[in-house]
Amino acid sequence: MAEPTPTPAPASPEAPESTPDDGFVITCQCGQVRLRTPSSTPIGICHCHCTECRRQSASAFGTSVYFPPAEGFYPLDPTLTAPGGTIGTISRPTDSGNTMYCYFCRGCGVRLLHAVILPDGSIRPRVSVKGGAIEDPEGKLDWAGAKHIFVRSAVIPLSPTWETYDTTLANGPRFVPAKEAK
After folding, report:
1. From CA 132, how far away is CA 136, in angstroms rounded?
2. CB atoms within 10 A of CB 95
3. Where is this region: Disordered (predicted)?
4. Do 149 and 169 contact (CB within 8 A), yes or no?
5. Which of 94, 117, 133, 151 is the most exposed place for a label (fewest CB within 10 A)?
6. Domain map of the chain by residue range?
């Protein structure tokens, strides 16, 4: 399946100064990419313990901060992902039969965001911004309220006070005692 090509609004390579709800700046390690979320209020935050997220983050879990697709945010301006653009893309099938597009900085390789395209070609109504790529100097994000998903693959102990799910949120919560998660 080809990368989605809905008509996007241009995204600025230089994120403008922020106002109270202009969203968060998304940036990579080298600073070559600067995007902005559509608001400073995400749909949700998850720490994913699946093997794919562990690989892409090179850590014990991957953190995603979800925002709805929106003009100027996603779909990305096609010049950013075109040959010679600053953002690279890889895609892979998901277990549920969708296609996940993963966007990264071509300069430093930092993963920036993921978007899922459903079998009918529509965009899933949430885009996953990688948590470490979000600038949040005022501490607006509530990291403590994040849900832990795919804990069946967790490689770290999980607190029994955290909201956890064996796989996805759709499968209902399962509170895993810390001694059980290894």
Report:
1. 10
2. 9
3. 1-20
4. yes
5. 94
6. 25-145
